[in-house]
Structure formats: C-alpha cells, structure tokens
Amino acid sequence: MSTTLTEGLQSIVGSAHVVTDPGVLDGRSVDYTGRYRGRASALVRPGTPDEVAAVLRECRAAGVCVTIQGGRTSLVAGTVPERDDVLLSTERLTEVGEVDVSERRVRVGSGVTLADLQRAAAAAGLLFGVDLTARDSATVGGMASTNAGGLRTVRYGNMGEQVIGLDVALPDGSVVHRHSQVRADNTGYDLASLFIGAEGTLGVITGLDVRLHPIPKHRVTAVCGFTTLDDLVGAGRALRDTDAIAALEMIDGRAAALAAKHLSVPVPVEGDWLLLIELAGDSDLTERLADALDGTELADEPAVGIDANAQQRLWQVRESTADVVGLFGPPLKFDVSLPLSAIPSFAADSAALVAEHAPEAVPVLFGHIGEGNLHLNVLRCGTEQERHLYAAMMKLIAAHGGNVSSEHGIGSRKRAYLGMSREPADIAAMRAIKAAFDPTGYVNPAVLFD
C-alpha cells in the first residue's frame, strides 16, 4: 500500500487505527474455519459512520479494493481478502442506543455483537429475535449482511424481519440514512431491504434499527430421540406450524455422542437423531407439548425441561455441536436449504458421497429443521479431498431441490455455484445493481460473483 494512502487513512481514523503489521494482517486474512486464507495490505478501524464513508472515498480514489469485516464469523470465506485489500473493520461501531420499550426497537452500531444486543434487550424486559451459537463474536451488521437466521428463526424469522432501519456508507463515499418512526412506510423503494443479504457488496452497514419482542412468560423445552430421520422430519413438519413454537433444532446423534465423550455433555435420550423442541407463550405449555408429541414415533421417552436450569442443559446438547465439529481440525462446512421431504434422502446420499471421496471423514448433519436450513459438517476432511468433494456436494444439493446457501451467504467459497440456485437473469440483475452502486467493483470484490 502506498505511503500516500496510508497517510490519508491515518488522517481519517488516527494512526492507532491503521495497522500494517504483517502478523496482525495474517491473522485477519484467514476465515473462521481456518481453511481459507488471503492477503491484505492494511487494517483500518473507523469509529464513526462518517469515517467509514471517508475511508471508502480514500480507497476508491487510490484504486485499492476493500474487504469489510465484522465479527469474522463467516463460514464461506466472506471476509477473506484476495487482492492485497484494505480490511475495513466495523469493530469500533459499538454504540447501543436507548431501548424504546413502547415501540420495542433499538438503534445499534453495526459492530455491536449479538450478545451485547441481547443483553441490552433483556435489561429492558425484551428480547432480540435472532440467536446464534456464535453470539459472542457475530456482529449485528454482519448478520444483516448475510440475512442470518439461527436458533429462533422458526418463530421470529431471519435478520431481514428484525431490521427496520439502516445507515449505510455507499461505495461512492456517501451515506444513506434510512429510518422511519412509523411501522407502515410505503414511500418509494425499500432501500433497507436491498442491503440485507447483499454480503457487503453494495456498501458498508454502519448502524441499524432493530425490532425487539416481548419475553414469553413460559417456556418448555424437550429433546426427543428418533430411530429414523423420516420419523424426525415427520415430527418437525407437524410441530413447525404450532403457534407456540420457539425453536425446532435437529441434532445428529453422532455429534451428540462426540459431545458426551469429549465435552462431558450428556445425551438425555436414545436415538440416532435428536430433535430439540421449545414452546413459548403466556401460559404453561407442558400439556400442549405432550399433545404435540402424541402419536410421534419416538425412540425413547423425551427429556423435558420446565425450569431454566433444565432447559439450559438441554440446549447444551444442541449448542455443543459448534464445538464438536472443530475437535478434529477445521471442518468442511456446507450450509444448505432443502425441502423437508428431501432431507432423509439427502442425509443418506451425502453420507455416501463423503465415504466415496473422503473415507476417513465423518459427516455430521444438524440445523434448523423448521425451515429445512441444515448445516452439514465434514470432520477429518483434508484439503485434497475437499477439492473433489465440494463440487460433488454442490451438485447433490441441487439435485435434491435445495439451495447451495441458506443463511451463511455465498461469500467467496460458493460464488462458482451461485448459478445452481439462481437463474441467469437473476444473476444479471444482481450484477446490474452491483455495478450501479459500485462501478469499479472495489468493495468486497471477492464476494458473491466470479
């Protein structure tokens, strides 16, 4: 990076927030899984939306690419630079506004972590509708950029349903403030929605107004075991439309067994496949849970948690999968969306495909069964094996009527497979929008498109 650009960036954010140390840049140029690595020329940490915009103007004038980084929890190499990029981090944009309890909303900086947002909401007697196991690292801006879903999607929806206003620094260095105090606002283009799921290709989200929700007075949580995936899917199909449903999570019995062995998280029921169910509402839902499970083909009596401690123990069975999949080195991750009817056949076919290309690898399948949003993690899969397995798995996903990405986005890892889930006309339209906002293509240039 030129001295002129370095000095220009330092004049905007201060010399302490422009980092060119090779060791720091190397650590910032690897993805969350540790499988994908790139290269960067500098790390810049602006502290205000205006500084973000000024950094973009400076980099654009210098002809230098910019890769945006939040909590760097992307699982598709969405924050990995490829062209000696300047890394623009939102980590200092951490202001949390006062919670508007009557309107149930709050304005936050894009660098606020999910955990901090959850704490602010809880302190006001409310909750935020999206939850992830990476809550301590994932930032709200990054979650909006990928339209993240997570553990409560079956009840509250993805990030797109939570965002009611945005501040965005555009590639030309201008700033859009799209906010409204009214719930019904039909005054032209829905600009905020354009940036949800755009993966930072159209600009840098610097702040958000997000919707909050009342905290249910009662919860009941259960983990059920199933002998077959067909039985679990049948139960999930029946439960997902229950008006009190709060969570519906599928857990591979192999992952639960590994968690019991290596993390001392006990498996509460027998079964090759487990289903975590949570109901929430204003009255005791224990009987409703029993009615919902009546007639379901269970492998064992369900484990039910009524008080908070018991519920937390059951949730550990699901959340421990995030730690389990990293026990044998960086896992190969596939984030897919499938029709519920296709999940059993995909589970069998994907396991066979893994055995064919990586005989020593262990496939682990889990995720948000209510939406058919699943995470296939392949443990003990080497780089050489990945080269052949990845493309074959993408084809298998498409053959089962699925999408190659559900909530993690395309990033750079899946950009070659975008055409499996989008028609040529769709991609052309997206490219036209990208060109309108960023004619030189310098913002997140490695993301989404080849």
From TrEMBL:
Cofactor(s) recorded in Swiss-Prot or TrEMBL: FAD
Gene3D superfamilies assigned to the protein according to its UniProt record, in alphabetical order: 3.30.465.10, 3.30.70.2190, 3.30.70.2740, Uridine Diphospho-n-acetylenolpyruvylglucosamine Reductase, domain 2, Vanillyl-alcohol Oxidase, Chain A, domain 4
Pfam families for this protein: FAD-oxidase_C, FAD_binding_4
Keyword Flavoprotein in record: yes
Keyword annotations from UniProtKB, A to Z: FAD, Flavoprotein, Oxidoreductase
Residues covered by the FAD-binding PCMH-type domain: 36-215
Keyword Zinc-finger attached: no
Entry's family note: Belongs to the FAD-binding oxidoreductase/transferase type 4 family.
Domain of life, source organism: Bacteria
InterPro entries according to UniProt: FAD-bd_oxidored_4_C (IPR004113), FAD-bd_PCMH (IPR016166), FAD-bd_PCMH-like_sf (IPR036318), FAD-bd_PCMH_sub1 (IPR016167), FAD-bd_PCMH_sub2 (IPR016169), FAD-linked_Oxase-like_C (IPR016164), FAD-oxidored/transferase_4 (IPR051264), Oxid_FAD_bind_N (IPR006094)
Protein name: FAD-binding oxidoreductase
